[in-house]
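User: Could you check the structure of this?
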Amino acid sequence: MPPGSQSFDGHHPVRTLLRLLRPSRGRIALAVLTFVVKDSPVWLLPVLTANIIDTVHTHGPISHLWINAGILALVLLQNIPTHILWVRLSSRIIRSLGTELRSSLTHHLQQLSIGFHTRTGASLLQTKVVRDVENIEQMLQQVAQAGTSAVFVLVGALTLTAIRVPQFVPLFLLVVPATAVLVAFVRKRSTVRNEQFRRRVEQLNMRVGEMAHLMPITRAHGLEQAAMHRVRG
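Assistant: Sure, the predicted structure tokens are below.
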């Protein structure tokens, strides 16, 4: 039995995804650490730029100016190699997950009854193994980049604000929960529509597969218009 074939739970997709990612815990930790270093210019640049401006405005020691400029250059230069390392690590994790998912799905499909495969059709099964897994990979790529960046930018902003201007911390504590509630509300409303859209795409793929399979019969009996209307519907 392929690894991960017992990990699927349709009622808890997030829990299932975490189970599938469990074998890659070490690589995920290294990727997150790399991302923190790579993304550090996002929340360090405003601080270093402000220090440089304050030094010039207050006619501070020239050494402070060179120290901040050196740190600024170092932070910017490290972004290139760490970004390459981040892309390599995250791509390997996501591709390994996609390979495991396709292997597990193929194993499950082999165990289903002949009646199920007769009712479902080959095109729909191909969609699940190819397109649905590809959607999961794209989702993980977006979450890995945008989600991780959002978390660490928030943590960095809170930390720096608490150190330099602690009076603004309550504002963050109010805005972040309000944003989370708004996202949860929008997600709840869009889940049903996304599910309906996914099923319609599966039906479309099944109809296109039937049309391609029956093309010689359709052409022989002059039923091109009927096949076209069936797919268009």
